[in-house]
Amino acid sequence: MWEFDESETREEDFKITPTHVVKVPMMCMKPDDVTFNYADLGEFQILELLYKERFPC
Question: Are residues 15 and 21 in contact, defined by beta-carbon separation less than 8 angstroms?
């Protein structure tokens, strides 16, 4: 099972509005063996992030 390493958290820009940007802690990860379900439906995008108990092994 893959688990997020908290030491991989980085301060990154987060856009509150197009002109208001703040720094927030962001998760960074590069697992080679994990995939995520993603859909771009035009008006919105969906990314499925599973909880630890349901993470595929």
Answer: yes
On whether residue 20 sits in a domain, the answer given is yes
List the domain range (segments joined by +) for residue 45: 6-54
The residues that bridge with 23 in the sheet, in sequence order, are 13
Quick one: CA dihedral 21, 23, 24, 27, positive or negative? positive
pLDDT tens digits for 3-55? 777 888 899 999 999 999 999 998 877 666 677 889 999 999 998 876 665 54
Domain count of the fold of the chain: 1
**Largest separation between any pair of C-alpha atoms in the chain:** 41
Closest CA to 26 of 9, 38, 43: 9
